[in-house]
Amino acid sequence: MTETLEAAAPLAIDDATADRLFRTARSVTEWTDAEVTDAHLRAAWDLAKFGPTAMNTLPLRFVVLRSDDAKARLLRYLPDGNRPKVEAAPATLVLAHDAGFHEHMPRLFPVYPGIREQLAPDTEARDGMARTNALIQAGYLIVALRSVGLSLRPMNGMDFDGVDAEFFADSGYRSFMMIAAGLTEGEGTEHPRLPRLALDEVAQIL
Amino acid sequence: MTETLEAAAPLAIDDATADRLFRTARSVTEWTDAEVTDAHLRAAWDLAKFGPTAMNTLPLRFVVLRSDDAKARLLRYLPDGNRPKVEAAPATLVLAHDAGFHEHMPRLFPVYPGIREQLAPDTEARDGMARTNALIQAGYLIVALRSVGLSLRPMNGMDFDGVDAEFFADSGYRSFMMIAAGLTEGEGTEHPRLPRLALDEVAQIL
């Protein structure tokens, strides 16, 4: 019945893409040895950057760990369950938000002169805006990384303060998530897909 | 130069889809009179629901306002600038997070027996988890709504407490965003696209 409904749905993208981005995409635990290249990262960002944010604030920042040395700097802040995934993945992105996003606003949101100065005094408000919009951007980035063919394992089990001190001490960015990424052969996981909530369980249509 | 780089990128989706979901998609202000149907909403959710969340918590909830009466209930909580968009759009989704998501966990995350009971006592922690993951899901939902051909205007200028009292008094959901949606002819906005940050401004590759 579900398949019939999905087949009847007015998708504006092709079925293979709907599968790749959403329907058959899985949070994987195994990757091939193929590298995550600069071109992968650039292509993914060149999609994700266009996702809408409030006042075009674009507060998402990230560091990409590919070398063993770089990964080792992250591993010490992870619980046991997440370490093997970072060790196995060709790359891990550590996502963070930048409460200093307002410094870019004269360029990013020129339609509102003075917005940088208006936001500057309220660090707490900026931190909230940055976290909110960076999380939405994390959703875009996950879809964008899949759009360049990567298979992902998003995780948020980590010592955020430790990670911030390790990677973001100078910038003041605050981490909230990591995404292990690489290429897979087959499904990339042995776990069956978990259930999802149906539309009428999450939405009311008035 | 940018176009050359994008053309050279290893996209796993076709260019028309990359445009529709990200590159030429815009936050619009004008829609046609065509309805946003139940089939649009079902098809979009049947994509977005598969986006990964921490422990498969799926805390995003939403109400869809299509009738004039339903829209009128929202309009009173909006600043002047956002009212015309909700009035013009065939549908507006009000997104919220459900701190009571743990009640679904025995079904959604059966691999962790007892997680419902473990989460139950800490309302504040659940509220934070719900908001974090619902925001990531908002990113998925925006891409999914575009995947069924809809053009969107995400907005967060609203009286959240007022909206919660109006729509979520019984459920206890907490609103964080709205998305006006419909079909467009042409770009759907007269505003030029705002600039974006480049990869080397947001990411460090180690």
Any idea of the CATH topology of chain A? Answer: NADH Oxidase
Biggest sheet strand order of chain A reads: 1-2-4-3
The fraction of residues assigned to DSSP E strands of chain A is 5-15%
How many domain modules of chain A?
1
Helix fraction bin of chain A: 40-55%
What is the name of the CATH class of chain A?
A: Alpha Beta
Whole-angstrom Rg of chain A: 19 Å
The quaternary organization reads as homodimer
Mean pLDDT of chain A: 95
Domain Nitroreductase (chains A, B): 25-182
GO molecular function, one term (chains A, B): 3-hydroxypropionate dehydrogenase (NADP+) activity
Protein name (chains A, B): Malonic semialdehyde reductase
EC number (chains A, B): 1.1.1.298
Structural features, described:
The structure is a homodimer of 206-residue chains. Chain A is built from ten helices and five strands. Chain A has helices at residues 2-8, 15-23, 38-48, 68-75, 83-88, 105-108, 115-119, 123-147, 160-167, 199-202; strands at 60-65, 91-97, 151-155, 174-182, 203-205. Chain A is an alpha+beta fold and 206 residues long. The first copy, chain A, is globular and about 50 Å long. Mean pLDDT of chain A is 95; it is low at 1-7. A four-stranded antiparallel beta sheet of chain A has the order 1-2-4-3. The relative contact order of chain A is 0.21. At the A-B interface, helix 1, helix 2, helix 3, strand 1 and helix 8 of A face helix 1, helix 2, helix 3, strand 1 and helix 8 of B. Strand 5 (203-205) of chain A pairs parallel with strand 1 (60-65) of chain B, so a sheet runs across the interface.
